[in-house]
Amino acid sequence: MSIPSHEPKRPARARVVLYTTGGTIASTDADGSGGVAPNLAGAALLGEAAGAIGDIDLAVVGVRQVPSGELTIADAIEVSGRLRRDFANGFDGAVVAQGTDTIEEFAFALDLLTVAGSPVVVTGAMRHPGELSADGPANLAAAIRVAGDSRLRDLGVLVVMNDEIHAARFVRKSDSSSLGAFASRTTGPIGRVVEGRARRYVNPPPLARVIEPDRLGPFVPPVALVGCALGDDGRLLEHLADLGYAGVVIEGFGGGHVPGRLVGPLAALAGEVPVVLASRTGAGDVLESTYGYDGSERDLLGRGLISAGFLDGRKARVLLSLLLGTGASTAQVAAAFARLHRSATGLA
Ligand code: ASP
Fold it and tell me: 32-44 burial, b if ≥16 CB within 10 A, otherwise e?
């Protein structure tokens, strides 16, 4: 007869997969040229982080070895496919290590593409491994711990930098060199890593799923991101359709405004391709119903431009690119932006 054991059951160790893609976190001066470039992978990239991840089983997969300006939306589609397969194969969480220059866009693309509730965490480093107090190992260890923490499921893709946990939908690189370069100005970070454990203060609402990953081919149509500046005469806009762009995002002033002379070219463009109106301020929503002058948000939305809602221009471009990649029409693009906005702002 076997005697039932009263030993407490050990919780299963979390399994986390780390994808490496290059960036400063992986950069050394390997050729002695005086400048660093991505070349570290595997154990060399993990460095001291390997001893600081607690009770987590880690698998490391090299995906790319590039500065993050070389990553593309197609790369995000590929990584999201790997994520889906790895979660189906029993991984509990995933970390993507990449250059910080494009984290805000890559992480948001993964957020739109990754259906599983398992934590997906993107991280990087502001100081390369050869600098004093390089932040890569601490960021990696924190990201791996967050990815292995089942309490952080269903929050969408997260960005962990400098012991702060940000929602991919809001975070931006807001400083060219500070260790605290990442900020989510609309909400602040949703949590922090304190003494090696994640603490969550804010629950971002679940984002509506507006992208069907299975409908995406390898080709993502080109989408232009155009700024708007004092005294802008709009001459760039007149040529955009001829350049073969399948869609355009315009970052207007303030709540979504442009000089009156840009209205004609924008309205003409909106008759040919989807044109999304974002704010160049980097936080807050595009307005809907306040101003009534030529070039105001009411004027532009009334002429067929599509509101980016809470998304900044870069993130709106990612969403528009993915929607066009699934073959969405202008009406479907408008509906998807509206649905995403309602879900993210509690208006759903
Ligand atoms: N230039 C680097 C990159 O994005 C910057 C970084 O990783 O912090 O690849």
Answer: eeeebbbebbeee
Q: Whose CA is nearest to atom 4 of ligand 1?
A: 99
Its pTM stands at 0.95
Looking at the fold, whether 241 and 298 belong to one and the same domain comes out as yes
Ligand 1 pocket test, pick from 20, 25, 101 with the greatest ligand atom count within 8 Å of Cβ, gives: 101
pLDDT per residue as tens digits for the range 212-264: 999 998 789 999 999 999 999 999 998 988 999 999 999 999 999 999 999 99
**Assigned domain for 235 exists:** yes
- Domain containing 172 equals 14-200
- Residue 94, CA distances (Å) to 42, 86, 149, 152 in order: 15, 9, 11, 12
**Residue 247 maps to which CATH number?**
3.40.50.40
Answer yes or no: do 153 and 243 share one domain.
no
Q: Ligand 1 pocket, 307 CB below 6 A?
A: no
Asked about 330 being catalytic, the answer comes back as: no
The CATH number for 49's domain is 3.40.50.1170
